[in-house]
Amino acid sequence: MSQPMLPPAPIGPLTAAVRRAVAGAPDRATLADLLFLERWEISPIPGAAAALRVSQIRRANPSLAEAVRAELAAAGRRRAG
């Protein structure tokens, strides 16, 4: 059985919130976490490991997680309206 995957990552972040956070990312692991959070907010994948990872990233960056969700919700409203 194959594991569902996140959508392919573009060259950089899709949201302004993550773009700002990436500018201060100290290392590649942090960058990977920030991009993972953004992709998860766009399209969550099933599985305990992914859910645990995203919950840890959210706990470490609550204001970023909220900013990403708000930005994606606003973009969704613009597309729908």
Describe this structure in words.
With 81 residues, this protein is mainly α. The protein has a domain at 28-80. The chain contains four helices and no strands. The longest helix has 19 residues, at 62-80. The radius of gyration is 13 Å and the shape is globular.
Offer a concise description of the structure.
The chain has 81 residues and is an all-alpha fold. It has helices at residues 16-23, 28-42, 48-60, 62-80.
Shape: globular
Q: What composes the largest sheet?
A: none
Task: Report the span from N to C terminus.
Answer: 39 Å
Average pLDDT works out at 88
Fraction of residues in β-strands: under 5%
Q: Give me the count of strands.
A: 0
Order of helices and strands: HHHH
Counting DSSP H or I runs of 4 or more residues, the number of helices is: 4
Helix/strand structural class: mainly alpha
Low-confidence stretches: none
Fraction of residues in helices?
55-70%
Rg computed from alpha carbons, rounded to a whole number of angstroms: 13 Å
Task: Describe how the helices and strands are arranged.
Layout: H1 16-23, H2 28-42, H3 48-60, H4 62-80
Helix pairs in contact: 1-4, 2-3, 2-4, 3-4
Which descriptors apply to this entry?
81 residues, mainly alpha, 68% helix
